[in-house]
Each structure stands twice: as C-alpha cells, then as structure tokens.
Amino acid sequence: MTNDAILKKVKADFDLSTNALREMVGAFHDEMRLGLESQVSSLKMLPTFVDRASGDERGRFLALDLGGTNFRVLQVQLGSGGQVKVEHVGKYIIPRAVMRGTGEQLFNFIAQSIDTFLVDSRIGYDEKRDLGFTFSFPMKQTDIVNGILINWTKDFSASGVVGKNVTKLLIAALKRQGIDSVEIAALANDTVGTMVARSYQDQDCDVGIIFGTGTNACYREPSTETIVNIEWGNFNKLPLNRYDVKHDKASGNPGKQVMEKMISGMYLGGLVQLVLSDLIQTRLMFKNRRAKFSKGVFTTTRMSQVESDTSRKLTKVEDYLDSIGIIDSALAERALLQRICELVSRRAMRISAAAMSAVVTWMDPELKDNHTVAIDGTLYERYPGFKKTILATLTQLHGKDAGKIKLVHTKDGSGIGVAVVAAVAAHA
Ligand code: GLC
C-alpha cells in the first residue's frame, strides 16, 4: 500500500464532514435540554450558583486550582476598574500516588501545599484570607461554597471522595494542618472561573471553555440567568471509529468522557498511538524496523512537536524517531506520521468548534448578539493551529455570522476567576 493509500484509510476514519458537525450540534442541543430537565443525558448541566462579576469587586484573595497537571495556589488582588493582579503563584506537582491514593492523602497534600505557599510568599497566618477553590471535576453544588463530587475524571481516582462535600474535606484538612487564617468563600469549576475572569472586564462574555488535560464548558443559561457547568467532556452522541472504541475500552473510565477522549490533552496522544501501532502491526508503516509504540509512549505534547516541525526534511521528527529506535526513517514516513497527527488533532478541533457552536446557538439561535468565549488550557494555548481551525470551522457552520463569536484566551482564568467569585460571595 502506498503512503497515500494509507493516509486515505486513516482519513476515512477521522474525517468529520461539516454536515456531521451540524448533526452533532442538533444532538448536543437535545442532550442539553434533557440535562436541564434532569432527564437521562450524557450532559450533566450542573447549576453553579455563580453569576457574572460586576467588575466592582475589590481586595486580596487566595485561589486554589485543582484538576490539571499541577496543583496551584495563587494570591490575587482585585483593584479598581476590573484590574486583576496575580501577586503570588505556587505550583505543586501532585504525585500520581496521591492522585490515586486516599482522599485524606489528597486533601492533606493540598493543605500542606497551602501551608508552604503561605510561608514562601510571606503571607503568613496573621491576616485572614478568603479563598476561592477551583475544583475541576463534576460536582453537585448546593450553594456557592459547598459541592459534592459526582465522579472523578481525568487521572484522579482518590478513594472516599465521590459523594462527599469537597469543601468539608478541605476544611478538615486545613484544620489538621493547623491553618485557621483561611476561610473558604467559594467553590467553582475551572470553566466557571475562566468565564468569570473574562466577564470581570467584558460583559459580552457568556461562555467559558477549558481545552487542557480535560475539556469542558460552562455558559450563562438565559432561562435562569445563572451559569451552568455543562461537563461536555462526557457528551457521547458522536460517531466513533474503531480506534475510539479501543481507546475508550482501554481507558480507566470506559463509556465515560467520550468526547473528552476525542479532544483533550490527556487522551489525543493515546489515540494516535493506537493508529500507529495498528499500522506497524499490519506492516504498513516503519516496515523492517522493530518499531513499537507502546501505551503511554506517544503523548499529546509529542504530537504537537511533530506537527510544529516545519523543516523541509522534518528533522525534528527524524530526531524523535531516532530516539525511540526507528533509525533511518524515510522522509515520506515522517511526513505520513505528521499527517496522521494532523488528522487526529484536526478532528479534535472541529468537534471543539461544533460543541462551541452548539452552546452559543443554544443561547442565541440566530446569532443576533456578540458572544465572547473565554478559553484557557494548554492545548488551546500551545497546540499548533487550534484557534485557527476552530475559527475556520465556525465559519463553515455559520458563514459571516461566525464573526459574532469572539474567542479570547483567558490565561490563568480558573485561578483569577475563582478569586472574583470568592470576592462576590464574601461581600454578598
Ligand atoms: C474534566 C472535568 C471538568 C473540567 C475539565 C477541564 O472534563 O470533568 O470538570 O472542567 O476536565 O479541566
């Protein structure tokens, strides 16, 4: 089989026509409706008890950000006219054993990191601080401060936390650590933090999205005028190919987070790895070499590096292949690898655009108003062509009305936003 023929085969698996995306938008609306009515749906549509900020919030707040690759603690100062200053940031890598250990170990780790942060930043324990807790998992909130974990997603699986109030677990851990100067004023999902961070200075902002380790969105529901956390990663009305099916089966949460597995940083590399293993096994690629792409070897970061190699001979790709024992690769093989990555990432971006379109047209079916979509996450920030492909897809779906949808990178949104939420809550 020629490389062109191989590519055609992979393309057939990963191509999603604009019509298929239109169908997806319709199915997404159906699931949103069912979710809002508390009927069976892959979209949880969780109420958040948060509204957009007014821009008048003031003061110094702490923010915790749990749910991505790092656990972060921030001190944020909210000043006049919607000004935000991040004064201190502490990043703490959560050991895998802690992510997957017991809830007590996880929350102890969080409380210890807060302690380290208070010491290192010289904030100390004398002044009382209100804290906003960004907890980036599906949770059932009962008010602005309390929320019960529905299920873990991404790489987390600490025992004894599902079904529990995570704020209470944090309070207990702070107590064990002897910290009594910190008061939890608000709890929010990272998408909500991101939307609030942007809306602090932009009243058109009504959607918040994360494209990172995981993916999710929130929006302002017109019927209730509150922010709803969609948990869109779990959307499952999408055409799956044989690689998606295999990928899902081999994951830690089969049948769950189906759309997330087709889009986000934690999963994309694994999907490409399955395609490569298949092509190698059927001797269509890297023939006569003992190449092996075993599980976990091919990461999304690697994909993005492969795609960003613009050299004529794809020397970076060559170096990478060398490093894993595939020496003397032919240029055509390297180009094929690059194209495969592009096909998988392009599908991710097109699905992302369709999901975004679904959320905006749910609020405004004819796109009469301007909508700012606040976006954060490493995938959006760093993956080559992410924004460009989303914009192109939105234009395919909406023609010139796509101009009503403005994508704004809201860096550190989840941390800053939850500080604003805490400010609103603390002064309410
Ligand atoms: C996962 C979580 C969701 C979060 C997203 C981005 O999908 O379930 O709550 O917003 O990752 O971090």
Per-chain topology:
Elements: H1 3-14, H2 18-36, E1 46-47, E2 59-66, E3 70-78, E4 84-93, H3 96-99, H4 103-120, E5 129-135, E6 139-141, E7 147-149, H5 166-177, E8 182-188, H6 190-199, E9 205-211, E10 215-221, E11 226-229, H7 242-249, H8 258-263, H9 268-281, H10 300-308, H11 315-323, H12 331-363, E12 371-376, H13 378-382, H14 386-398, E13 405-409, H15 413-427
Parallel strand pairs: 2-5, 5-8, 9-12, 12-13
Antiparallel strand pairs: 1-11, 2-3, 3-4, 6-7, 9-10, 10-11
Helix pairs in contact: 1-12, 2-12, 4-5, 6-15, 7-9, 9-10, 9-12, 10-12, 12-14
The structure holds alpha-D-glucopyranose.
Alpha-D-glucopyranose binds at residues 67, 136-138, 153-154, 189-191, 210, 212, 214-216, 231, 233, 260.
Explain what you see.
The protein has helices spanning 3-14, 18-36, 96-99, 103-120, 166-177, 190-199, 242-249, 258-263, 268-281, 300-308, 315-323, 331-363, 378-382, 386-398, 413-427, and strands at 46-47, 59-66, 70-78, 84-93, 129-135, 139-141, 147-149, 182-188, 205-211, 215-221, 226-229, 371-376, 405-409. With 428 residues, the chain is of the alpha/beta class. It has two domains: 3-40 and 210-223 and 226-409, 3-Layer(aba) Sandwich (Hexokinase, domain 1); 59-188, ATPase, nucleotide binding domain (Nucleotidyltransferase, domain 5). Strands 1-11-10-9-12-13 form a six-stranded mixed sheet, sandwiched between helices. Strands 4-3-2-5-8 form a five-stranded mixed sheet. Strands 6-7 form a two-stranded antiparallel ribbon. Helix 9 runs antiparallel to helix 12 and helix 12 crosses helix 14 (386-398). The chain is globular and about 70 Å long. The mean pLDDT is 94. The chain binds alpha-D-glucopyranose. Alpha-D-glucopyranose is lined by residues 67, 136-138, 153-154, 189-191, 210, 212, 214-216, 231, 233, 260.
